[in-house]
């Protein structure tokens, strides 16, 4: 079971949809519920959500529509942001994500974010880039071509304009 799947997948950037669709269908064989808690946030919302002032390029990926925050439920236990990293790993969800190239926020240095999954590394490889900063520039250019601004996705444009 996945909460509001089509609506949530619809918010993603088109380039991200196939990867998350595959990931969700794989983990559905053993996860009772995938609860998508966030797809698109503006950068300002991310800073507020994480209660930090310093800019962090990781959070931009919700602006670009290439990241999903989710909880999972297995046997009546809901895995959330506050759960420890090892508990998330034991569910099997993380190895399935990483086999697909999906990056897990639980491995972020300094600010592990267990509910966060994104396809930054997949896109860095796909577009022959060197790091997340180059990816951000690349995605900004894509958004300028598509929407005439740097808001990254149609969904964020809809929310903002
Ligand atoms: Zn996130």
Features:
161 residues; alpha+beta; Muramoyl-pentapeptide Carboxypeptidase, domain 2; five-stranded antiparallel β-sheet; 5 strands; 14% strand; globular; binds zinc ion
Task: Give a brief outline of the structure.
This protein is of the alpha+beta class and 161 residues long. It has helices at residues 5-11, 17-27, 43-49, 57-63, 85-90, 93-99, 120-126, 132-147, 154-160, and strands spanning 33-38, 67-74, 77-79, 103-104, 116-118.
Give a description of the structure.
It is a single chain. By secondary structure, this protein is α+β, with helices and mostly antiparallel strands. The chain has a single domain (5-149), classed as 2-Layer Sandwich (Muramoyl-pentapeptide Carboxypeptidase, domain 2). It contains nine helices and five strands; from the N terminus they run ααβααββααββααα. The chain has helices at residues 5-11, 17-27, 43-49, 57-63, 85-90, 93-99, 120-126, 132-147, 154-160, and strands spanning 33-38, 67-74, 77-79, 103-104, 116-118. Strands 1, 2, 3, 4 and 5 form a five-stranded antiparallel sheet that branches. Strand 2 and strand 3 (77-79) form a beta hairpin. The longest helix has 16 residues, at 132-147. It starts with a helix and ends with a helix. The mean pLDDT is 84. It binds zinc ion (ZN).
Bound molecules: zinc ion
Elements, N to C (H/E): HHEHHEEHHEEHHH
Beta content: 5-15%
Please tell me how large the radius of gyration is: 15 Å
CATH class: Alpha Beta
Return the structural class. alpha+beta
CATH topology: Muramoyl-pentapeptide Carboxypeptidase, domain 2
Query: What is the general shape?
Result: globular
CATH architecture: 2-Layer Sandwich
**Count of separate structural domains:** 1
């Amino acid at each position: 079971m996945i909460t509001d799947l089509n609506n949530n997948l619809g918010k993603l950037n088109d380039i991200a949809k196939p990867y998350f669709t595959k990931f969700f269908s794989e983990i559905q064989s053993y996860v009772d519920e995938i609860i998508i808690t966030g797809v698109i946030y503006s950068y300002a919302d991310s800073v507020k959500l994480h209660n930090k002032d310093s800019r962090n390029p990781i959070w931009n990926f919700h602006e670009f529509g290439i990241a999903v925050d989710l909880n999972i439920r297995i046997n009546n236990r809901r895995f959330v942001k506050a759960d420890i990293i090892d508990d998330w790993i034991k569910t099997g969800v993380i190895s399935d994500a990483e086999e697909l190239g999906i990056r897990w926020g639980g491995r972020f240095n300094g600010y592990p974010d267990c509910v966060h999954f994104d396809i930054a590394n997949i896109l860095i490889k796909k577009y022959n880039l060197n790091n997340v900063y180059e990816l951000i520039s690349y995605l900004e250019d894509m958004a300028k071509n598509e929407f005439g601004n740097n808001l990254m996705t149609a969904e964020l444009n809809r929310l903002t304009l």
